[in-house]
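Handout, section 3.2

Students often ask what a structure token actually looks like in practice. Rather than define it abstractly, here is a full record for Paired domain-containing protein. The first block is the sequence as you would receive it.
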Amino acid sequence: MPRRGASNDLKARIPVLYLAGHPIKDICHLLGIKKTLAYKVLNRYQEFGGVSNPYAYSCGVGRPRTLSSADLAFISAIVNHRPSVYLDELQDELWLKCNVRSTLPTLSRALEQLGVTCKAI
């Protein structure tokens, strides 16, 4: 699971407290953050006028997902209906019904994402 950073509203409090005259040590104690985060946010605030970098890449960068949420719902329905289905059969049904080509490792990861890790027949 990826690490979650501090929220933007928490980061927005750092420059407000700093401009109000609070030292960095007190800000860190009040907000429960590390000094490095406080200094990074203050540098971004000074450079960009906000707590985040407007030029940073958004989450929409990268390769699009092979399987959509509708495809995952279809896979989940098949596995619930037929628990003993093999990956290659699942691959064929996904191609026939949803017109989606997928590899066996992708299907295996999708099943793991859905919480299906071990089949008990």
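Discussion prompt for tutorial groups: The mean pLDDT is 88. How would you have guessed this from the sequence alone?
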